[in-house]
Specification:
51% of the residues lie in helices and 14% in strands. It contains 3 helices and 2 strands; from the N terminus they run H-E-H-E-H. It has a two-stranded parallel sheet with strand order 1-2. The longest helix has 15 residues.
Amino acid sequence: MQYIMQAELETGNCLKIIQTDGGGKYTGADVENFLKDKGIKHKLTTTDTPQHNGVAERLNCYARTCVIA
């Protein structure tokens, strides 16, 4: 969760909500406990649905398609 601490340090703002897919990387008990301790709400989207995860996920999907082709 280095990203969260770095983002808060750089912006001077506290993160209130983080949205991830349910793919497992950010759904472990230690991650949930960290977010709960920091008062951060964790929203989960459906796994493997790039349209729910923003531009970065769509770019990843596009890059995988280009590599395969």
